[in-house]
Amino acid sequence: MPRTIARWGRPAAVVLILGVLGWRLGAGPFLTGLASLTAGAVLAAALLTALATAAAAWRWSAIARAFGAPIPFRSAVPAYYRSQFLNSVLVGGVAGDVDRGFANDPRAGGARLGLRIVAWDRGSGQAVQLALLIVALLAVDTPLGVATVGAAGVAVAAAGLLRLALLARARGRDSAPSPFFAAVLGDLRIRLLPRQVLVPILAGSTLVTLAHSCVFLLAASITGTLHAAGTLLPIALTVQVAMALPLSLGGWGPREGVAAAAFAAAGLGAGHGLAASTAYGALALIAVLPGAVVLALGRGNHGQNRIARSAIAARPLTPRKAAP
């Protein structure tokens, strides 16, 4: 029964969200969002997404190196494009992350370590994203307020727990709570807090968040919401936090619901929020299409393994204190 609920619950939730939005706001905002796309907007979104992908790949590569499973940057970028594409077109938004985790070379710890690295990669990015949202809400006069921070915190916590559960199920291993938390603390202390890892995490995650926020601001602009970036930035960050929930269907669902609610709370109109979110979803999907090419060519995973094997063979790993 739990598996049946997990299998059908997410699509049902997405259909419910989009159905309610369509019932209350009509099909107009959806059509407006799609009709507003231009070649210039698509090109700008592709460039911004390329920057975000490179920054995320840098973060992932640094974390993997700290765990003794090196992934060269030139291999991490196509692998991350592939991961983003899979996350964008499959239910749940975590299939690409699982794919990256399983691609970890057996000689570098295999899928178990690979999934652990990916969990830290996404989790650290979402933590920085939440921190940036809090800063934006404190710095900008916005009606979203403290309630948004609380809801965002709950969303990130829920997303983290759900993502860990999905990755743990993919790993096929049930860990006892005490060893699990001991391992988390060990990872933080030994692997993630050293400067050479913390800087890529903070800087890379900030670049990722700001680049995707700029894509959302672009989507809002082309759909007719012409306001100062300071007004829309907290909304863009709130929408991204909502997208962290692994409840989407091809990227759709919570994003549209939160965008409509946030625009309404800011006095910009729920319809404008839904149109901006629709345009953003379309731009984001187009921008990660290079991942489909990587997938079709069978690269991004196997290339990563070959390069990782050669890196491991060429440079013996410095002995590290084992994490608990």
Instruction: Let me know the average pLDDT.
Output: 80
Q: How many strands, which pairing sense, and closed or not: the largest β-sheet?
A: none
Structural class: mainly alpha
Helix content: over 70%
Q: Count the beta strands.
A: 0
Describe the structure.
This protein has 324 residues and is mostly helical. It has one domain. It contains 14 helices and no strands. α1 packs across α11 and α3 crosses α12. The longest helix has 30 residues. The protein is globular. The two termini are 34 Å apart. The C terminus is likely disordered.
Structure, briefly:
The chain is mainly alpha-helical and 324 residues long. It is built from 14 helices and no strands.
